[in-house]
Amino acid sequence: MPDGHPDHSFPDAQREAVYRVIAERRDVRQGFRPDPVPADVLRRVLAAAHQAPSVGLSQPWDFVVITDRARREQIAALARGHRDQFAAGLPGARARAFDRLKIESILDTPLNIVVTCDRTRGGRHTLGRHVQPQTADFSSVLAVANLWLAARAEGLGVGWVSFFDERELAAHLGLPEHVEVIAYLCLGYVTGFASEPELATAGWARRRPVSWAVHAEEFGRRGLPGEEPVDPLADVIAAIAPPDAAAMTAAAERQDRMTKPRGSLGVLEEVSVRLAGLAGACPAPLPEPACVAVFAADHGVHAQGVTPWPQEVTAQMVANFLAGGAVVNAFAAQAGAEVTVVDVGVAGSLEPVPGLLPRKIAPGTADFTQGPAMTREQATAALTVGLEIARDLVAAGNRCLVTGDMGIANTTASAALICAFTGADPAEATGRGTGIDAATYARKVDVVCRGLARHRPDPADPVGVLAAFGGFEHAALAGFILGAAALRVPVILDGVISGAAALAAAALAPDVTAACFAGHRSVEPGHALALDHLGLSPLVDLGLRLGEGTGALLALPLIQSAARALRDVATFDSAGVTEK
Ligand SMILES: Cc1cc2nc3c(=O)[nH]c(=O)nc-3n(C[C@H](O)[C@H](O)[C@H](O)COP(=O)(O)O)c2cc1C
Predict the structure, then answer these.
(1) Catalytic residue numbers?
(2) Long-range contact set of residues 46-50: C-beta below 8 Å, sequence gap at least 24
């Protein structure tokens, strides 16, 4: 009883029951029993739904209860059409995983309930709906939540199916024009309730920890009440640990017992051992599905004439990635990977479209020959963007992250970063980027020299080095690499831009390299310097100098094959093959 006030909380057992029903509610798609749901049980569940809060007490919901088999068969056919369409648009690894998922139980359950919303109910003065018409929909969703929880308490499973064109379904149900479908629910008694979301068990997605979702006072200041505020960058750095030696030993021993001559898989044996060390398990989980994140940003140093390409090309190529027309899209499609584009600092605004993550820190960095490319705060913000994207992509079920970049003039910033972190001479670290003439090349080397002379970078202060030279994509990529390493998910590095970013990441957390796989060696001379400094050997060396994530994507099947061989290949003892 706080401060002598009456205690209105429920008795312990009842309070626990409330939390229990919340924790044990599941979206159920399999294991339905055909027995009918008694009318009194159904009435209780519907009455619970009908007690939901609603905007202005407008109670915009209605419930259409469907049991007729023929009607459900028609509706199931609609859902199948959209399911197939969705599956057709998935990257290869996701499509294979999706095939194994059950997403609807329209016919396996004895009854379906459609929850609708009437946005006009109550007239124009409905309190609260005036400014936000969508609050009517929110209210109907709360009715769904009540229904779902009450059903769980009754031992009834509920599966929500949203593979519908809303108007097409509305027409099938005879809904008036002004009434919309909010949820299509399949209900029935079940053989059991899973303890985890089925999508989590299937590896499709993972739960995000609650501490990632709670912010103190303003967005971005994450932390649970009563606990220290979370500093995502410090947390991620603290979570990065060396590889697991026991898992590496087990993997190396298994390689020696596999039905092949010892060492005959060359570098791929080492890759499999490193994957096991990172995962802390032998064999390591297969690094799929994979997602390439292409971090795009512009550079103030472009003004120094270091490239013949106009700055607008950054935004134009972002549009091309999103339309699926770039080399990264072709290589990702071939490798079965997803492409995500991150606007972390493109000059100019980009249309919001699916596949684009709008995370702009600023519309391009400042010219590093004139002053720092960004502030320390901006560098930290970009690092945080990158690590949060890594976390989100892993929570979305990815088991391998791939780095990509786009930013006209970013090989100049990369050369400066590589010099700052490795101590290399600008003449050695600077390359010809997309292809430049002798005069432009000389200017580019001079720009890097002037930048280094101006900022006198201290490699022991990686955030300061990133702030000095930029770009936003380098800082975000460094955060992305750190985020992957903290979650012990492999990250395949692309070319010189990723290499420069990895140097920053390694300066912040040296053990980050355990998670890094060098996809390829770029033609840019600074890339080899960066890889040497990181102690990484490139998997392919094909004379590429494109960026976008292309070189890393070519290495993806090699890394996946290495993991699969360690997992699937028989050993001499198991296969009964005689050893030499
Ligand atoms: C708005 C909404 C729409 C959903 N649509 C589908 C769907 O079309 N197919 C499906 O299999 N699950 C669907 N689900 C179920 C979610 O996948 C499920 O709630 C999530 O994986 C968490 O699992 P849990 O509900 O068991 O905790 C939907 C859930 C919500 C909230």
Answers:
(1) 548
(2) 46/113, 46/147, 48/146, 48/147, 48/149, 48/150, 49/115, 49/143, 49/144, 49/146, 49/147, 49/150, 50/143, 50/146
